[in-house]
Structure formats: C-alpha cells, structure tokens
C-alpha cells in the first residue's frame, strides 16, 4: 500500500514538472505559451517589411522595426535601420481604472507559429477577461492588426486609447486626425508624418479602430471617437463603451507605416492600407494572412519523439520566414526585424547561414535573397575598382545602397573579403536547386563572372606557381590581417569553380585563369596533416569555425581522416563568447560522418545556452543578450536538414545521402523540399 501511494505521488509530481516547462504542454509543436513575465525576452511578429516586438507589459509594444529603411546613425556615423513609430501601445480603462500589470491576474502570452499570431490575455479584478492578438499582416505587409476581445463578467464601462508614439530621434513630426469621406463611407484616420533622424526619409503612420459587429464606416453606428494630441510625438484616438455582463465585445486597432524608401507619398499610402484593412471583413483579412503562412509552412520540419527540439527548430524556421519575403528582393540582417543590432546591416550571415535552409524549403525567398545582391552588383564593381581590383567586391556590411556600411574603425569592413565568395557560392547553389536558366543568364552568371574576376585580381602568384590571398580577416575574426586564411582561400576556390560551371551551363567558355587560380590557391597544413587556419596560425583560440567550413559547406576537404583531425583540433579552441552557429558546423560534419551522438551534442550546444526566457529567443552567444539571432537559427536548421536529414546541394539538385537520427528522435520529416516540394522521411 505504501508503494502504491508513493508511486501515485511520484506520477503526480512528474506530471506537474512536465507541465511547468514552457511550451511543453503543447501537443502539436506549433505554440509557445508562458505565464512568467519575469526576465522577459519577447518574440517578434514580422512580415518581412515590419517587425513588431511585444512587451511583457500589457497593451504595450517594445518597438517597431522597418526593414531596409536606413538613415545615418549620427552625423559622422554609418547607416542604421530605422526604429519605426510605435503604433502598438494602447491604454484600456475599466470603470475609470487604467489597466496595468500591477492590477491584473492570469497573465498569459501565446505565440502561434502556424498562424503567425501573438496573443496576450489576462483577467481584471474578476469583472473582465481581456485578450488581444497581434498580426504583422503577411497579406498587407506595411501594416499590422491588433484584434481585441473583452468578455464582461459584470457590467463595465471601458475606455480605449490607441496611440502613434514617435521616437524622439525623428524630426518635425506632424500629428493629425481626419475623417475621410467617400459618399456615405466615413474613414477616421489618426496619422503622424515625420522626417527620420537625419532627414533622409519621410515616414508616415496611419491608424484607426475597427468594430467587427457593426458597420464601422457609419459614424452613427460606431462609438464616438475622441482625438487627443498630447504632443506632436504622442498622437491619440479613443472611444468609450458600456458593456453588459456576459457580453463579448470585440474590436481591432490597425495601423500602417510607410516611408520614402518604398513610396513616393508614404503619407497617402499609409492611409490607403489602413482604409483597406478597415473596409475588408475581418474574416477575409485574417484568412488571407493565415493562408499565406500556410503556404510558407509547406516547407516544414517535423520531429517526432522530442517535443522540445520540435519547438526549438520550428521557432527558428518561423523567424526566418517572418524576417523575409519572396516578393521583396531584400535580404535578412543578423537580428532580422527584432532589433537595430548590427545597425540592421546585411552580412555573410545571410548567404552562409540563413540562406541554405531557405533555399531548400522556399525558393521564392531564396531568390529574393540573391536578387538583393545582384541589384547591387554595379556598386560592388565600383568598390573593386576603388580598391585596385577587377570584377566586383561586395561590402562586409551592406545596407540599401550596396556600399560598405561597416563602421570605419572595424577592420572587418576593409579586410573581410570572403563575403564576395560567399555570395557567388549562394548564386550557383540557387541555380543548382532551381535550374532556372533564365535567371542564370540574367542575374546569376553576370555576378559569378565579376566575383571570379575579383578573386583572380585579389590573388598573388608565388614563385612556385601557387597563389596566395594576403592580408585578410577570415571567418575567425580574432585573427585580423593574415595571409592565406583557410576559409577565405577555400571559398575563393569554390567560387572560381562555380563561375566556370555557370559559364559552361549557358554555353560560354570560362576563363582559363579562373581554373588555374582555383587549382593553385594555397591551403596550409600542420606537419601532421591538420589544416592550418592561416599561414602563421599557432593554436590560438578562435571566435568561430573557419577551417572546418572547408569540410562543410565547401566540400574542399573530403577525406575522413583530415576531417576528423580538423574537428578534434579546432572544436576545443572555440571561444565561449563566439557566435552560436560555430557548433552547428561541427554538428553537420559529425552527422555526415555517421556520429549521431556528437552531432546531437553539438546541435544542442549550438543554441540551448543562447535561449532566453520565456519563449526561447536566441541570443548570438551564450554570454550575450541580443535576441533574436537569425544567423544562429540558420545554423541549427542546417544541422537538421544537411546533417540529420542527409540532404546535399549538388549539381544534380538536392539529393539525400546517409541520413542519421539522434537516439531521442523517432522520426524526422522534411516537407516542401526543392521546386518539386518533395518530402523526406527519416526513421
């Protein structure tokens, strides 16, 4: 009898423990829920144009980020992505008491990754239950929609205030409220228009309330609206409403934000988007958003037997989808649309880390990422000329202009040249997967030719007939201004080979010098055959994987003995403060070698120390706190797709070789692979 009681208590305690883990109670792997708002890092809602970062504080949004909209960070600084006007802060009063985290209970937030919705709910004093859901609309990408529901447990009087709050860095804001009219249709529009911090752009933001159960276009059917301009930087619109006990009252707050980066008249365009949302039935508007996300999730990763890994992997893929669009010809910054970190610039993080999973699962987005670079090819050609080289030389940090955007004090901007090869490799891989010969002729080969010419001019011929690439910063940025960096040389070799293949593919004869240089670029070795990171490397710790990138993704080193030597030598040298994706490289290589145990160890190490509560947002490193790190997401996804899943990018397209699963995974399914939308099942 004592055994039975103890066993029952043990099972009950286990169930409580299991249920207390954030997200663990979710059976389908699509939702993350938290009731803990301490030590809080939010999860962004984004649609590739606008990023909305929610707050732990009810009815508040932490920030809005505008993709590809830059102004100088300071008069003598470089460009920085714009912090948008904040349209996501509202005030709700019930019976004249303003709601805040101190007077509510049952606070809960849920991210639904399948529908890209973010819901906050809470109870006020047992007289009302409130929930609201944020959508960064995929179908109307310069706008957002915050859907409210208030359930009255007693008779209540509510007052709701919507706001457009303009950051102080903006210049000369003009805040207005107008009721636009066309025939019998009335359209109330709250609006602020201002210049960005140094005047490069004009930004226009419009917003309004929508009532679902009445005709909100008729003034006599909706609550009376009150405009209150606290200042030009704080523009407010409010309404009051009495709600009877047991009544469910629903409404929405919708807003749009446009700039002269994308529109000649951002003020009017922001109004039109809000009017579109106002006059489109809620069901239709949100169904379009959800249908577009359903299409994105045709490319998915399903893990059976390990719910936490499933949630982690899907959250990574959710962010890559949220930060990008197939119709934009834009790229993804390391922090996506979650923050202004790294000034919102574009690095190799895209081509080497985020791009490969997207190339496998969504070729529309992948095409956008490579087109971003070809649109800036002429600027890269000018840069090569200005530094005394031929061809095209891409910037280490890129913005909307395509010029070098790295702060001048950072040596990476002047010397980290492997980015040019990384871009060329991404271009050939796009053709490998899609076989889009028209794209190859018009965009792919013209860029590959220019980057191949660059590497020929960048290489120095030695007396023994070999070639060196001197004075660079490699992937391991702890070692600046070195000669013959392994990854730089390896990526140049690969890019020159790919340019030759591309020429042949469209019926042209490749330059002989491309092959000569590619076959003779130096890769240094230690006496025991271990690959040397650069010509004078002596065993120092490294910021991230460099040599090991020659095994994956470059496939330059393919013999197992050297691969294992390089793994065992360089893994212990990884610095704790290094970026998350370094371990991902090792994990892919171990998986391809058939070592599931070490692959899984490094897969978990690549992101688990970087997760931040309560949802698991990824920071760049275990010691940093700058989520969301989309680069790390790309790395962990590569481990699953190209490591455990066994997928390879080849000249024959995407093929599978020797997949392998961790012991805890029962099944791995990768759907929507390649243009044929294939499904791969590994058991």
UniProtKB/TrEMBL annotation:
UniProt domain Glycoside hydrolase family 65 central catalytic: residue ranges: 314-513, 533-607
Keywords: Hydrolase
Ranges of residues in domain Glycoside hydrolase family 65 N-terminal: 46-219
Pfam families, per database record: Glyco_hydro_65m (PF03632), Glyco_hydro_65N (PF03636)
GO molecular function terms listed in the Swiss-Prot or TrEMBL record: hydrolase activity
Domain of life, per lineage: Bacteria
PANTHER family named in the record: GLYCOSYL HYDROLASE-RELATED, PROTEIN-GLUCOSYLGALACTOSYLHYDROXYLYSINE GLUCOSIDASE
Listed name of the protein: Glycoside hydrolase family 65 protein
Species per Swiss-Prot/TrEMBL record: Aquimarina rubra
């Amino acid at each position: 009898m004592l055994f039975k009681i103890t066993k029952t208590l043990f099972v009950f305690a286990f169930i409580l423990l299991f249920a207390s883990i954030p997200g663990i109670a979710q059976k389908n792997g699509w939702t993350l829920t938290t009731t803990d708002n301490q030590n809080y890092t939010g999860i962004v809602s984004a649609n590739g144009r606008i990023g909305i970062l929610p707050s732990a504080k009810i009815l508040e949004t932490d920030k809005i980020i505008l993709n590809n909209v830059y102004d100088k960070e300071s008069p003598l600084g470089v460009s920085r992505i714009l912090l948008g006007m904040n349209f996501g802060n509202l005030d709700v009063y019930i019976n004249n008491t303003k709601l805040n985290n101190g007077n509510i209970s049952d606070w809960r937030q849920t991210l639904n990754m399948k529908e890209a919705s973010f819901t906050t709910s809470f109870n006020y004093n047992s007289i009302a239950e409130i929930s609201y859901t944020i959508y960064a609309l995929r179908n109307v990408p310069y706008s957002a929609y915050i859907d409210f529901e208030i359930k009255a447990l007693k008779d209540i009087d509510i007052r709701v205030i919507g706001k457009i709050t303009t950051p102080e860095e903006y210049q000369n804001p003009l805040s207005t409220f107008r009721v636009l009219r066309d025939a019998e249709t009335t359209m109330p529009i709250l609006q602020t228009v201002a210049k960005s911090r140094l005047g490069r752009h004009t930004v226009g933001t419009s917003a309004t309330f929508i009532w679902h159960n009445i005709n909100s276009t008729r003034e006599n059917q909706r609550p009376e609206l009150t405009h209150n301009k606290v200042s030009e930087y704080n523009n407010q619109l409010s309404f009051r409403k009495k709600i009877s006990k047991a009544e469910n009252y629903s409404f929405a707050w919708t807003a749009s934000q446009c700039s002269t980066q994308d529109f000649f008249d951002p003020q009017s365009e922001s109004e039109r988007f809000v009017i579109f949302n106002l006059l489109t039935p809620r069901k239709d508007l949100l169904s379009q958003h959800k249908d577009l996300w359903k299409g994105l999730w045709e490319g998915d990763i399903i893990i059976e037997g390990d719910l936490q890994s499933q949630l982690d992997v899907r959250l990574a893929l959710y962010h890559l989808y949220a930060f990008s669009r197939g119709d934009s010809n834009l790229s993804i910054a390391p922090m996506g649309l979650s923050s202004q970190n790294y000034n919102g610039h574009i690095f190799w993080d895209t081509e080497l880390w985020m791009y490969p999973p997207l190339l496998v699962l969504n070729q529309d987005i992948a095409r956008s990422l490579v087109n971003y670079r070809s649109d800036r090819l002429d600027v890269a050609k000018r840069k090569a000329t200005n530094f005394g080289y031929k061809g095209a030389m891409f910037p280490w940090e890129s913005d909307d202009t395509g010029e070098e955007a790295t702060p001048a004090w950072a040596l990476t901007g002047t010397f980290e040249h492997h980015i040019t090869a990384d871009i060329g490799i991404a271009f050939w891989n796009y053709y490998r997967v899609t076989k889009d010969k028209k794209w190859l002729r018009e965009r792919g080969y013209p860029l590959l030719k220019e980057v191949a010419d660059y590497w020929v001019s960048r290489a120095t011929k030695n007396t023994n007939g070999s070639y060196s690439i001197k004075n660079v910063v490699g992937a391991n940025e702890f070692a600046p201004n070195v000669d013959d960096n392994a990854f730089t040389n390896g990526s140049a070799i690969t890019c020159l080979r790919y340019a030759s293949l591309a020429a042949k593919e469209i019926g042209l004869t490749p330059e002989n010098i491309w092959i000569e240089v590619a076959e003779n670029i130096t890769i240094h070795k230690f006496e025991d055959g271990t690959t040397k990171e650069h010509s004078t490397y002596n065993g120092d710790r490294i910021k991230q994987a460099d040599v090991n990138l020659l095994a994956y993704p470059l496939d330059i080193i393919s013999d197992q003995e050297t691969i294992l030597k390089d793994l065992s030598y360089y893994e212990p040298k990884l610095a704790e403060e290094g970026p998350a994706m370094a371990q991902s490289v090792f994990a892919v290589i171990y998986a391809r070698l058939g070592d599931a145990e070490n692959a899984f160890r490094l897969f978990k190490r690549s992101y688990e120390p970087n997760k931040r509560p309560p949802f698991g947002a990824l920071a760049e490193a275990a010691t940093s706190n700058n989520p969301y790190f989309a680069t790390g997401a790309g790395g962990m996804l590569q481990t699953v797709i190209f490591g455990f899943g066994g997928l390879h990018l080849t000249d024959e397209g995407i093929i599978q070789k020797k997949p392998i699963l961790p012991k805890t995974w029962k099944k791995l399914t990768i759907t929507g692979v390649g243009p044929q939308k294939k499904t791969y099942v590994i058991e």
